[in-house]
Design goal:
alpha+beta, Butyryl-Coa Dehydrogenase, subunit A, domain 1, Butyryl-CoA Dehydrogenase, subunit A, domain 2, four-stranded antiparallel beta sheet, three-stranded mixed beta sheet, 52% helix, 13% strand
C-alpha cells in the first residue's frame, strides 16, 4: 500500500479556489468590518453567490473520505481574515449540532433554513455555553420540560457567547431534560425562526473576531414543537434509560465539539500562517544597517520556528480530521491535541509577527495586530487550552484526572 502526504488534485483546486476568494473578497474588507464590529453581510452574500456559503458545499466537504476538505477550506478563509471567516463559517457549528443528533428528516428540514439561499443568506447559532457552564458542560442550567398535552417542549435559560446569537434564523439550543443525570441528561433542540420568548438584547463587544456577531441568548418559556427535539423523543427516552441504569451515554454537546475541534484548529492555523507570511515579507523588505532584517539570525530563526510550528500543527489537524471522518477512535485525545497545538501556535506566531514588525506591528497600519487579537480566542473557545490538556491527559493515562 502506497503512502503519500501529497494533496489530491481536487484538494489543490479547492484550496486555490478558496484562497482566491479570500484574497479578492475577504482581505480587502477585513479592516473595515473589524472596525465596524458588524456582521459582513455583503461578503457572506458574495460567498453564497459563488456557492461557498450553503449546505451543498458543506456536504461536499463532509463527503470527502480523507476528511481534509473542511480543514483546508477553513485554513484558507481564515488566512483571509479571522472575523470574516467566522462570520461565514459560524453557522457550521449549528449545522454540526443538527448533523450529530438529528434524524434525516430533521436535517432536510432545518439545515437549509440555517443558510437561506443566494438571494437571501441567513445564519444559524449553536447555543451551549452559559455564564456558569462553559467548559463545565455538566453545570448547564437551561431546562427543557416536555408538555405532553401539547406535544411541546418548554425551554427556559440563559445562553452565553453564542456566535450569531439573536441574529440567527435557526438557533440550536442545548438544554437539560433530566438534572439528575448531569451532562448525560441533556438534549438539543431547534428553535425555529420567529419563536416567541427567545431574545438577545445586545451583542458582546470582543477583543478579536469583531466581524463575527456574538451575543447572549435568553429563553423565556420558549415553546417548540416535539419535532424540534433533535433525534426524537423515543431515542431520547432510550438514551436516558441507559444512563439511569449506569450505561455509557455521552453528551450531545461534547459530540458536537469533538466533530468541530480539528476544523477550529484549522482556523487558528490560517490566522497563524497569514501572520507568518506578513512577517516574512516585511523582514525581506525592511532594512537596518544597510541590509534586510531577515539577514539577522534573530529574525531568521524566529521565522524558521514559526513555519515549523505551523506545519506541525497542520499535520495534527489533518490527522484528527482524517480519524474523525473515518470513525477511528481518538484513543489519545487526538482531536483535542490538534486544537490545543493549533491554538497555542496561533497566539504565539501572531505575537512573534508583531515582534518582527516592531513598532509597525503594533499599529493598525499592518494587519498582524488584528491577527493577534483574533488568534487569542483559540486558546479559549471550543474548550480552553486547559480542557484540551485534561482530555489528552485522561486519554493517555486511562485515569479520571479531576
Amino acid at each position: 500500500m502506497s503512502f503519500s502526504l501529497e494533496l489530491t488534485e481536487e484538494h489543490r483546486e479547492l484550496r486555490d479556489w478558496l484562497h482566491g476568494f479570500a484574497e479578492r473578497e475577504i482581505r480587502p474588507a477585513a479592516a473595515e468590518w473589524d472596525e465596524r464590529e458588524e456582521t459582513p453581510w455583503p461578503v457572506i452574500s458574495e460567498a453564497a453567490k459563488v456557492g461557498l456559503y450553503g449546505f451543498e458545499t458543506l456536504a461536499t466537504f463532509w463527503a470527502d473520505e480523507t476528511g481534509l476538505s473542511l480543514p483546508i477550506a477553513n485554513e484558507e478563509l481564515f488566512w483571509g481574515d479571522g472575523g470574516i471567516g467566522m462570520a461565514i463559517f459560524g453557522t457550521t457549528l449549528a449545522v454540526a449540532g443538527i448533523f450529530s443528533a438529528g434524524t434525516p428528516d430533521q436535517l432536510a428540514e432545518w439545515v437549509p433554513q440555517c443558510y437561506g439561499d443566494a438571494d437571501d443568506p441567513r445564519v444559524a447559532a449553536f447555543c451551549s455555553s452559559e455564564p456558569d457552564a462553559g467548559s463545565d458542560v455538566a453545570a448547564m442550567r437551561t431546562r427543557a420540560v416536555y408538555d405532553e398535552a401539547t406535544d411541546e417542549w418548554v425551554l427556559n435559560g440563559h445562553k452565553a457567547w453564542a456566535t450569531n446569537g439573536g441574529i440567527a434564523n435557526v438557533h440550536v439550543v442545548q438544554a437539560v431534560v433530566d438534572p439528575e443525570l448531569g451532562s448525560r441528561g441533556q438534549a438539543a433542540f431547534v428553535v425555529p425562526p420567529g419563536t416567541p420568548g427567545l431574545s438577545s438584547p445586545s451583542k458582546i463587544r470582543k477583543h478579536g473576531l469583531r466581524a463575527s456577531h456574538t451575543a447572549d441568548v435568553f429563553l423565556d418559556d420558549v415553546r417548540v414543537p416535539g419535532r424540534c427535539l433533535l433525534g426524537g423523543k423515543e431515542k431520547l427516552d432510550e438514551r436516558l434509560a441507559r444512563a439511569r441504569e449506569g450505561g455509557k451515554s455521552s453528551s450531545q454537546a461534547m459530540r458536537t465539539f469533538e466533530l468541530s475541534r480539528p476544523t477550529v484548529g484549522a482556523q487558528a492555523i490560517g490566522i497563524a500562517r497569514a501572520a507568518y507570511e506578513q512577517a516574512l515579507e516585511y523582514a525581506g523588505q525592511r532594512e537596518t544597517f544597510g541590509r534586510p532584517i531577515v539577514d539577522n539570525q534573530g529574525i531568521a530563526f524566529t521565522l524558521a520556528d514559526m513555519r515549523t510550528e505551523i506545519d506541525a500543527a497542520r499535520l495534527l489537524v489533518w490527522r484528527a480530521a482524517w480519524m474523525g471522518r473515518n470513525e477511528v477512535p481518538f484513543t489519545s485525545g487526538e482531536g483535542s491535541m490538534s486544537k490545543l497545538k493549533a491554538g497555542r501556535v496561533a497566539t504565539w506566531a501572531t505575537e512573534r509577527a508583531i515582534q518582527v514588525l516592531g513598532g509597525s506591528g503594533y499599529t493598525r497600519e499592518y494587519p498582524v495586530e488584528r491577527m493577534h487579537r483574533d488568534a487569542k480566542i483559540y486558546d479559549i473557545f471550543e474548550g480552553t487550552e486547559q480542557i484540551q490538556q485534561l482530555v489528552v491527559a485522561r486519554a493517555i493515562s486511562g485515569r479520571h484526572i479531576p
